[in-house]
Design the sequence.
């Protein structure tokens, strides 16, 4: 008697768990990639100076790929520090490509002027 | 003395590129030159293996020829190991393969303080054929020319934590290139003196990211003299003095000139070579910059040293 109740309870709990876990609205892999912005703390700096650059985005298993043609980028993830080495005089575009676990990706850039 | 014809052949690599007066080197820790440049062609079926280690330090900024203060980078250094395998296909033709690996290529930052950025990895491989164009066994003159191709191990730039390394910390050019080297050697048997002129010119193609490292030209004059020459002593020594000029051309990003690229440098490089029972050669050399001129502001060379180990493997030599 007791064991049949236990089996029923276990089954009920299992069904509840499966139904919750299969709810498509709560599946994190369906979370869309929303790349809101890329910003630099200062858009004009001198050589030898630095500025913070960061991105705001939401999504599933996000990865952040940073590149710049002139100058150095320190750090990783959602925020890096841009270092204006001597070769950076002029306008410099810093790119961040964000990709998610569903193979979607988006690229944005921000410009920093170096004097 | 060598004939007019061979003299022109020797000049040819230099005359082809008179406009290359500026060079590639933007805040760069640089790229080492191979360690076997003081070798002519090998005898048939002779194999030599050369391994070298090089440490290089840059810790000051130059604008033109002037030392300037400040800059975001406190210093930059690299540690590099390389090997050159050479084989004498005939008495006049030698095949060479040059491989190298940056153990680290690091920048230490003043701003932001305490930060470092480090690259590592394989440099381009160089495969070349060296041909002896002229040889006078009586007067001891030799002239050889080598043509080679630079091969990248990867066509993509290196990233650390998903951030692409700056071009000057990349271990390779990530593209193909070509190298021409020439060697003029003259020996005086009685005095034990050896004179040597070496030239090397490199070109690089544009890589996938649109960056083209500027061409470079190296010209070096060596004078060497044997120090110890007794048959009973298992070690013989050679003292070598090298005066080297390195010219790096401008680099380009998407066909626009990289502002801080291009340099002309002269180095004085004393070198000691020890030959152990004619089987293994050990060399130690120090690069001392005596003149540096940079286009715009660049991180300049301070000092470099190289240790070279060379072993000839030939029939009769174990």
Sequence:
């Amino acid at each position: 008697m007791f064991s049949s109740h236990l089996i029923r309870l276990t089954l009920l709990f299992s069904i509840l768990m499966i139904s919750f876990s299969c709810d498509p609205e709560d599946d994190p892999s369906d979370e869309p990639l929303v790349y809101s912005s890329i910003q630099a703390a200062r858009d004009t700096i001198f050589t030898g100076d630095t500025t913070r650059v960061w991105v705001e985005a939401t999504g599933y298993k996000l990865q952040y790929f940073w590149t710049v043609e002139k100058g150095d980028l320190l750090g990783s993830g959602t925020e890096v520090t841009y270092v204006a080495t001597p070769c950076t005089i002029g306008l410099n575009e810093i790119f961040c490509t964000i990709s998610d676990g569903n193979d979607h990706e988006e690229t944005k850039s921000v410009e920093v002027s170096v004097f | 003395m060598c004939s007019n014809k061979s003299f022109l052949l020797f000049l040819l690599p230099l005359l082809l590129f008179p406009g290359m007066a500026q060079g590639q080197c933007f805040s760069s820790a640089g790229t080492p030159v191979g360690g076997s440049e003081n070798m002519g062609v090998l005898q048939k079926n002779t194999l030599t293996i050369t391994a070298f280690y090089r440490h290089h330090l840059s810790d000051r900024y130059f604008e033109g020829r002037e030392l300037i203060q400040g800059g975001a980078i406190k210093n930059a250094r690299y540690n590099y190991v390389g090997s050159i395998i050479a084989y004498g296909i005939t008495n006049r033709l030698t095949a060479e393969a040059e491989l190298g690996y940056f153990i680290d290529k690091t920048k230490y930052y003043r701003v932001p303080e305490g930060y470092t950025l480090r690259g590592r990895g394989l440099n381009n491989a160089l495969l070349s054929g060296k041909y002896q164009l002229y040889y006078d066994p009586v007067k001891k003159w030799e002239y050889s020319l080598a043509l080679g191709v630079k091969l990248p191990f990867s066509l993509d730039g290196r990233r650390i934590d998903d951030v692409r390394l700056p071009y000057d910390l990349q271990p390779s050019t990530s593209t193909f290139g070509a190298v021409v080297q020439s060697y003029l050697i003259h020996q005086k048997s009685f005095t034990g003196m050896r004179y040597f002129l070496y030239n090397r010119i490199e070109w690089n193609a544009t890589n996938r990211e649109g960056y083209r490292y500027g061409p470079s030209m190296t010209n070096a004059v060596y004078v060497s003299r044997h120090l110890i020459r007794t048959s009973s002593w298992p070690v013989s020594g050679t003292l070598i003095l090298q005066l080297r000029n390195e010219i790096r051309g401008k680099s380009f990003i998407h066909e626009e000139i990289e502002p801080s690229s291009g340099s002309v440098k002269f180095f004085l490089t004393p070198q000691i070579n020890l030959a152990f029972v004619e089987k293994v050669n050990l060399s130690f050399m120090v690069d001392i910059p005596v003149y540096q001129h940079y286009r715009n502001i660049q991180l300049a060379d301070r000092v470099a040293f190289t240790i070279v180990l060379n072993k000839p493997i030939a029939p009769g030599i174990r």
About this structure: The CA atoms of residues 65 and 97 of chain A lie 5 Å apart. The beta strands of chain A are 34-40, 44-45, 50-58, 63-68, 72-76, 79-83, 90-99, 105-114. The helical segments of chain A are 2-21. Chain A touches chain B at residues 47-50, 63-77, 80-81, 83-87, 89-90 (CB under 8 Å).
